[in-house]
Write a structure and sequence with these properties.
Blueprint (H helix, E strand, L loop, with lengths): L3 E4 L6 H12 L2 E4 H10 L3 H10 L7 H12 L8 E4 L5 H13 L6 E6 L2 H15 L2 H4 L1 H15 L2 H6 L4 E5 L4 H13 L2
Parallel strand pairs: 1-3, 1-4, 2-3, 4-5
Helix pairs in contact: 1-10, 2-3, 4-5, 6-8
The structure holds adenosine-5'-diphosphate (ADP).
Length: about 190
């Protein structure tokens, strides 16, 4: 299996690039943010809980997120692989993902980390707010909080994969096509 962690700060382009990658490699796209938003829309109990964190730009608790991720993975029979988008976001999530994949006799192949500086992220999120309808994109204070949570809790997850020699940084600045090409060539050289 080809299992990719597509990593990067809010607004780095993970969702956009995931669409290109699933098409090219036949992978299953698993975005924790998308699953939470679908639950909010469906007014489930999980959605209600997730919303209370997401609206403030905080992380949904690890245990809830990890359980949700596991059940999403189990929905797929014989997948070619997964793109994990927005997961793992904490060290505990990364450890849990490794343990879980081991029970399925598979593992993470690579973490591809999109690198974009903070000014550009804020610009992109501001633009996205006009079309996404996402409450967490509309409020600059919430955006600031998400970036801070990323820097404090999520960015350290890089070293987890660096220690396993599975980390590749990708320049996330440029046209969407140019960035897709960088991702393809990183994957094709594995
Ligand atoms: P972005 O990367 O643009 O912030 P996402 O759609 O990935 O957007 O995530 C939106 C929100 O969903 C996060 O701010 C967080 O509240 C919640 N969330 C998504 N993935 C996770 C995760 N792995 N752990 C905890 N919370 C998560």
């Amino acid at each position: 299996m080809l299992n990719i962690v597509l990593f990067g700060p809010p607004g780095a382009g993970k969702g956009t690039q995931s669409e290109r990658l699933i098409e090219q490699y036949g992978l299953v796209h698993l975005s924790t943010g998308d699953v939470f938003r679908a639950n909010i829309k469906g007014e489930t109990e999980l959605g209600q809980l997730a919303k209370s964190y997401m609206d403030k730009g905080q992380l949904v608790p690890d245990e809830v997120t990890i359980n949700m991720l596991r059940s999403e993975v189990m929905k797929h029979e014989n997948p070619a692989g997964f793109i994990f988008d927005g997961f793992p976001r904490t060290h505990a999530q990364a450890t849990a993902l490794d343990a879980f994949l081991a029970t399925l006799n598979t593992e993470i192949t690579v973490m591809l980390a999109l690198e974009v500086q903070e000014d550009e992220l804020k610009e992109r999120l501001k633009k996205r707010a006009e079309v996404s309808g996402r409450a967490d994109d509309a409020d600059p204070a919430v955006i600031q909080n998400r970036i801070q949570v990323y820097n404090n809790e999520t960015a350290p997850v890089k070293s987890f994969y660096q220690e396993q020699n599975k980390f590749t940084a990708i320049d996330g600045i440029g046209t969407i096509d140019a960035i897709t090409e960088r991702l393809f060539s990183a994957i094709d050289s594995i």
